[in-house]
UniProtKB/TrEMBL annotation:
Free-text cofactor note: The Mn(2+) ion enhances activity.
Record field: transmembrane: none
Name of this protein: Amidohydrolase
Cofactor annotation: Mn(2+)
Keywords from the named record: Hydrolase, Manganese, Metal-binding
Organism of this sequence: Arachnia propionica
């Protein structure tokens, strides 16, 4: 029985698992109920399982049993597990009710990775190497991948991976069931910055007797847009967004301080380094001109996600073999969102793959996008996503001549 046929036979089980997981969304690095449900789904399989020490991660290693020549290669498949602090408004009969939501489709990621695990266990006699399955918490902004790397993820099989793949589902953009890839930069880097402008408070009627922090804060926020448009190439862009602003307690009081937080994103390491250098110099210069001081903090988050060119072409070929060439599209531009799978791709050549799970009754151009409280995902894509991951792994570590 082929991998795809095997997964077709267990499709309903995988969908049931996805819906179970959808109803118990947990946020961040500690996901005890989610971890327990995944461990139950893996019970009885021929796996070497390691649990995270600091986070609720699961790493499972499958040892292939096919004979091979020389050193047996290792490949890695990733599925993220965490949800978002979003109150669900999808209207699904299995919607979550605990104030969190799998609004980014990570419940599908877990289900399809479990499907790939089961398919490869069933076909382990085709594997002349080993597979690492990475079930990761904390992708949504808290860098769960970094914790797993620090705890030895890449060395758990005894040899480092020669290739790595991850699938991410979308609730919009492409028709349901379409896989998408792009060689090179596929997603942006992301960094957070926090700024506190330190002035001297006073009466609103006498600003000359105070050092108003609000006006320089406004100038700083406005200047971030000028930096983007005047200091960076439009073909190597950056995105700077200020998302939180706070100042003052009353309409007639000049506050002691004002503060704002934001993010900057870039599509190359060079642009990321430049914006990281420019922003604090910009803020300090504006502060000096206004006679105030400024505290600046950068919180480094995710690097640029870069797909390997050869692996991207390989994914397109395997999709065409399994499902037909019409099930694959190539993105023209990278996404300005960020992903900590970027850390895996810094260590091993691989590919971050998109898969549309937009329900067929919705228009992909207007359907609620990932992270929306109204986002819906068609879980009929789970078996196909599992089949692609399993085939990518199986073909890479197949015995010579097969």
């Amino acid at each position: 029985m082929s991998i795809r046929d095997f997964l077709a036979d267990i499709e309903e089980e995988l969908i049931a698992l996805r819906r179970d997981l959808h109803q118990i969304p947990e946020v961040g690095l500690q996901l005890p109920r989610t971890q327990a449900r995944i461990l139950a789904a893996l019970e009885g399989l021929p796996l070497e399982i390691t649990l995270g020490r600091k986070v609720s991660s699961i790493v499972a290693v499958l040892r292939g049993t096919a004979p091979g020549d020389g050193e047996r290669p290792v490949v890695l498949l990733r599925g993220d597990m965490d949800a978002l602090p979003v109150r669900e408004l999808s209207g699904e009969p299995f919607a979550a009710t605990n104030g969190n939501m799998h609004a980014c489709g990570h419940d599908l990621h877990m289900a399809l990775l479990v499907g790939a695990v089961r398919a490869l266990c069933e076909h382990r006699d085709r594997l002349a190497g080993d597979v690492i399955f990475q079930f990761q918490p904390g992708e949504e902004g808290v860098d769960g991948c970094r914790y797993m790397l620090e705890e030895g993820l890449l060395d758990v099989a005894g040899r480092r991976p020669v290739a790595a793949w991850a699938i991410h589902v979308w609730s919009a953009m492409d028709p349901c069931g379409v896989f998408s890839t792009k060689p090179g930069t596929v997603m942006a880097s992301s960094d957070e910055f926090r700024v506190k402008v330190l002035g001297r408070g006073g009466h609103g009627s006498a600003p000359q007797r105070a050092a108003d922090p609000v006006a320089p804060m406004a100038a700083m926020i406005s200047a971030t847009h000028d930096v983007v448009t005047r200091r960076f190439d439009v073909f190597d862009p950056v995105v700077v967004t200020v998302g939180r602003v706070a100042a003052g307690t009353a309409h007639n009081v000049i506050p002691e301080h004002a503060e704002f937080d934001g993010t900057f994103r870039a599509f190359s390491d060079e642009a990321r380094a430049r914006v990281a250098d420019l922003l604090p110099r910009l803020f300090h210069g504006i502060a000096a001109a206004h006679g105030v001081e400024v505290d600046y903090e950068r919180v480094e988050q995710y690097p640029v996600t870069v797909n390997d060119d050869a692996e991207t072409e390989n994914v397109a070929r395997v999709v065409a073999d399994l499902f037909g060439a019409d099930r694959h599209v190539r993105w023209e531009h990278p996404l300005s969102a960020a992903e900590d799978f970027s850390r895996i791709l810094q260590a091993a050549p691989g590919c971050f793959i998109g898969l549309s799970a937009c329900p067929p009754d919705l228009n992909p151009a207007t359907a609620p996008m990932n992270h929306s409280a109204h986002a819906r995902f068609d879980d009929r894509v789970v078996a196909d996503g599992a089949a692609l991951l399993a085939e990518l792994a199986a073909r890479r570590i197949a015995p010579a001549g097969r």
